[in-house]
Amino acid sequence: MDIRGRNKISSEFSVSSMTDIVFLLLIFFMITSTLVTTSALDILLPKASGKTENKKATSVTITKDLVFYIDNKIANEEILEQDLLAILAGKEEPTIVLRAEEGVPIEKAVKVMDIANRNRYKVILAVRPK
Questions:
Q1: Strand 47-48 relative to strand 128-129: parallel, antiparallel, unpaired?
Q2: Contact assessment for residue 76 and residue 69, using Cβ atoms and an 8 Å cutoff
Q3: Dihedral (C-alpha) 108, 93, 39, 115: value to the nearest 10 degrees?
Q4: 62-109: per-residue pLDDT in tens?
Q5: Could you give the count of Cα atoms lying within 13 Å of 107 in the half-sphere of its Cβ?
Q6: What does DSSP assign to residue 38?
Q7: Range of 103's domain?
Q8: Considering the domain boundaries, does residue 93 fall inside one?
Q9: How far apart are CA 45 and CA 100, in angstroms?
């Protein structure tokens, strides 16, 4: 009498499910990497040597049309100081990255620098590398 069962268990490892997981991860990372965009306005900065990198800083952008932005949100020039005071309140080392587009009158950039000077904020002038 044959007591062995009819179903044999295969001791081989099937990699088909592993390849499915790898392809799903590949598709996931391809889709999410295309969704990552920089949160910067499209402006043409003046050329200079050096680079500006400070992730903790608040950026003030001035476009050619003399529109002010604080961290990519439109700001009114008249209440710029109050907006900056509210945003930078309580920060340990308040820093402003000034991004003035080429062709912006120097008076507008000096206005932001004056606000920073009065409130003892550090100012970094953003430039385009040569």
A1: parallel
A2: no
A3: -10
A4: 999 999 999 889 999 899 999 999 999 888 888 999 988 888 899 999
A5: 2
A6: -
A7: 47-129
A8: yes
A9: 7
